[in-house]
Amino acid sequence: MTQDKLKSSKPESHPPPLMRAIREAMAGTESVQERLDGFATAIQSAMSVRVASIYLLRPGAELELSATEGLKKSAVHKTRMKPGEGLVGHVALTARPLNLADAPGHPLFSYRPETGEDPFNSFLGVPILRGGRTLGVLVVQSKQSRTFTEAEVEDLLTVAMVLAEIIIDDERVGGKKGKLKGITLAPVRPETMEGKAFAPGLNRGTAHLHLPPVSPANLLAEDVSEEQARLEEGIAVLRASVDAMVSGEAASLSRASKEIYETYRMFAYDRKWVGRLREAVSSGLTSEAAVERVRNEHRARLMKARDPYLRARLHDLEDLANRLIRALSGEKVGPGNRTIADDAIIFARELGPAELLDYDRKQLKGIVLEEGSATSHAAIICRALGIPLVGRCEGILDLIETGDDVLLDGETGTVHVRPVESIIDGFKLRMTVKGELTKAYDALKDQPAITRDGRKISLQLNAGLLVDLPQLDQAGADGIGLFRTEFQFMVSDFMPKLKEQTALYQGAIQAAGDRPVTFRTLDLGGDKILPYIDPVPEENPAIGWRAIRIALDRPGLMRYQLRALVAAGADAHLRVMFPMVTTVDEMIEARALFDREVDRAVNLGLTLPKKIEVGVMLETPSLAWQVSAVCDHADFVSVGANDLMQFFFAADRDNARVSDRYDPLHPAALSVLKFIAHQCDRNNTPVSVCGEIAGRPLEAITLTALGYRTLSMPVTGIGPVKAALLKLDAADLSATLEPHINVESRLSSLREIVQDYCTRNAIPV
Ligand code: PEP
Ligand code: MG
Predict the structure, then answer these.
(1) Beta-carbon neighbour count of residue 244 at 10 Å?
(2) Residue 707's closest CA among 744, 734, 729?
(3) Segment of 206-210, 444-448, 484-488 carrying the highest mean pLDDT
(4) Angle between helices 498-512 and 555-568 (to 10 degrees)
(5) CB distance 641 to ligand 1 below 6 Å
(6) Which residues, at least 6 apart from 395, have a Cβ–Cβ distance to it below 8 Å?
(7) pLDDT digits over 171-205, tens only?
(8) Which of 123, 399, 569, 675 is a Cys-bridge partner for 609, taking CB atoms 3.0 to 4.6 Å apart?
(9) Does 720 have pLDDT greater than 90?
(10) Using CB atoms within 10 A of its CB, is residue 547 exposed (0-12), middle (13-18) or buried (19+)?
(11) Angle at CA 76, nearest 5°, toward 73 and 77?
C-alpha cells in the first residue's frame, strides 16, 4: 500500500481480526507446539482459508510440516522437504512470498499424498524470517482458484514475524515453556561457537545484547491507530536528526561526506521503506516489531548479495533502523552512557566505533559480532584497548540472552555460551597462566631489550588512535614505530579537519616525550575504506589504486595531511614515511610534496620541527631490489612485512583461504629480509620491521638474527618479544640459520630449526 493510500484510509483502532485471533492463540497456551497448532487454527478461520500450515527448518536444513489445520494431521512431523524443493521449499530458498492462483499448475509443485493437499488450488506461502535468516515457511491454501490480496499477504507476513519471535524465544529459554515436539531449531544450551579472533585476550563475562530483541509480548499493538501515531512520531524524530546531520555538522565538510549524509537522508525519506513500516503497523504490529520485520526482509534479500555496494546500502539501512528504534524508545545515547553489567560482553551484528565507545570501557570485557573483520573499526579499537573481540559468529544472536554466562577466547576465536563446569575450569586455568605471564612481562617493562650478546633492540608500538597512546608507557615501548594515520579517517564519520589531524599528531608526539614517533601517511584503498568516500570498485584492490598511488594521483589530500604533520612537529622531532612505494621515482615525488609543505611553513614564518626525517616503507618486492637506490632518498626504511609477504607469496592477507599458506620463515622470504637489512646497513640507513611478524617472539628473534635492530609491533607483542630477546644470543642464532638462508636451500621453512634452537637454549617463544 502506498503512503497516500494509507493516509486516505480510515485508521483502524482495533487490531484486525487475524491479529485478534493470534492474540487469543498466544494467551494461555503453555507449549510451543500448542501455540503453533493454535496459530494454524486461528489463521485458517480468520483468513477463511481451507488450509493453514507451518513448516519449520530443522538443523539438517530440511523443512518439516510442524503444524496444520486442513491438511492431514498424521503428516505433521513427517512431511519434509529441502529448501528449493516444491513450492514451500521455493519460498524458503528465495525468502519471498509466493502467491499463486493455480498451485498444482506451477512447475515446482510437488505432490505429497500423505498430506492430502491435491484439491487446493490457491497457495500463499511467506517466509518466517529472523535476523535475515529463514526459520520456516507459513502457508495458506484454499480450494477456490484466486490470488490472495496484498492485505492478506501483509497479514500473513505479520503472523510469520510473531511466529519467528516465539520460536526463537522458546529456544532461548531452553524450552522451559515446552519445546517444539521433535524439533530443534537451534541446539539447546550450552553452546560453543567458533568465530574469528579479531582482537586477542581471554575473558569471562556476562552477555549483553547490544540491541535487545523485541519480545513476543511486545509484538502486537493494543490499539492500531495509537500505534500508527507513535510510528509517525518516531519517523519525524528520525528525519529531524538526519536533517540536522546534513545541514549542521556536515555542511562545512567535503562534498563526498555530504553526499553520504544526503544518501542517508534519502533512505529516511524513502517512501518504500516508510511505506513498508506503515503497512506493518496497520496490520497490527507494534512500531518496533514493524522495524524489525522490514529489517528482516531487507537482510534476507541483501545478505545474498555479494556486491559490496549493495551490502554497504544494507548497512546504511540497518543503521537507520537502529536509529528509529532508539527514537521510538526515546533513548538518548552518548559516550559511556549505556547501562551494562560490570563484566559485560557485548553481542551485536556489527558495531560502529561510536557505538562501541558509547560503552564504559572499564566494564567492557569483550565483544562478539555476527559480522566484523580483522580490519573493522571495532577490531582496531578493541586491539588498542586490549578488549578481546571474536567476529563472524553467524547466528549467535539467536542463541544468546542478556545475562548469560560467557567465556570469550580472543586467541582462538571461540565463544562458550552458558558453559559447563569442566569448560569453565579449563578456561580459568588458561586465564591464570595468561595473567601470570602478563605479570612477568610487566616486570620487564622498564628493562631495555638487550640480547645476551649485547645487541640493543628497540621495541616500538604500532598505533593510530588516541586510545593507543597510554599503551606506550604501560608496555614500556621505545617509541611508536608505525602510526597508522588512516585510522583517524576510518573511525570518524566525516573527513577529519586540518585542526583535528594536527591535534592527534601532536597528542602522539607529546605522549611519546623524547621517544620517536613515525607517522605513516594515509594508507587508503584496498580494504581500508572511508565511510564518507564511495569506494572505487576494483578487481584486485590489494594491488590496485591505494596508498601512495592515490596520494600522488590526487595530491590534495596528502598535502593537507603533510601540512598537519609539519604543524604538529613544531619544535619537535618529526618522522614521516610513505606506504606502498613501488619505485624510487614515487619516493622522490612523495618527498618533493613533503618538502613543499616545509617550504610553505618557512615562507609563512611558522615554527618548524627541530629535526625532520623522511622515510620509506618497503612493502613491495620491486623496491626490495632497489634498496640502495631508494636509500639515496630516504632517511630510514621500514619494512611493512604484512604487505611485503602478501605480494612476495602472491597471497591475499585478508583472504582466510590463502593468507596462512606461506610461512614468513620460508628461506626465500628470509633471504629477501636479510638482503634488505644488509643493503640498508651498507648505506648507513636505519631499518626496522613493522609488520605483524615483528610482534611474534619466534619471528622477532629470527629478524634480530638477520640484523634488524628496531621492531615495531602491536602492544601485545612487546612483553613476549622482550622476554625472548633477553635470552637470545643473536650472533649464535645467526650462525645457526646462515647455512639455510640462500637460494640453494631446499627447506620449506626454518621454523622447526628456530623452534629447536629456542628449546635447547631455553628461549621462551
Ligand atoms: C605492513 O604492511 O606490514 C604494515 C605494517 O602496514 P599495514 O599493515 O597497515 O598495511
Ligand atoms: Mg602495509
Answers:
(1) 12
(2) 734
(3) 444-448
(4) 40
(5) yes
(6) 131, 133, 186, 193, 370
(7) 554 444 444 434 444 334 578 999 999 999 999 99
(8) 569
(9) yes
(10) buried
(11) 160
Reported as a single tens digit per residue, the pLDDT across 408-456 is: 999 999 999 989 998 999 999 999 988 898 899 999 999 999 999 999 9
Q: Bigger pLDDT: 82 or 216?
A: 82
Quick check: is 382 catalytic?
A: no
User: Phi and psi at residue 430, in whole multiples of 5°?
Assistant: -65, -40
Q: Which ligand 1 atom is nearest residue 691's CA?
A: 3
Tell me how far apart the alpha carbons of residues 378 and 210 are, in angstroms, rounded to a whole number.
13
Pairing of strands 456-463, 449-450: antiparallel
The reply to whether 690 belongs to the active site is yes
Report which of 402, 406, 366 is spatially closest to residue 386, judged by C-alpha positions.
366
d(CA 185, CA 222) in angstroms, rounded, equals: 30
Residues whose Cβ atom is located within 5 A of ion ligand 2: 619, 640, 643
Distance of alpha carbon 146 from alpha carbon 159, whole angstroms: 21
Of 499, 533, 485, nearest in space to 254 by CA: 533
Q: Please report how the helices 32-46 and 17-26 are oriented relative to each other, as an axis angle in degrees rounded to 10.
A: 160
Percent of the chain with pLDDT over 70: 85
Determine which one of 382, 680, 690, 758 is catalytic. Answer: 690
CA distances from 99 to 104, 147, 297 (A): 13, 6, 17
Q: Hey, what long-range contacts does 116-124 have (CB within 8 A, 24 or more apart)? A: 116/71, 116/72, 116/75, 117/51, 117/71, 117/141, 119/143, 120/50, 120/51, 121/145, 122/146, 122/147, 122/148, 123/87, 123/98, 123/99, 124/97, 124/98, 124/99, 124/100, 124/148, 124/152, 124/153, 124/156
User: How many angstroms separate the Cα of 675 from the Cα of each of 160, 681, 703?
Assistant: 65, 10, 12
CA distance 410 to 402: 20
Cell of 79: 512431511
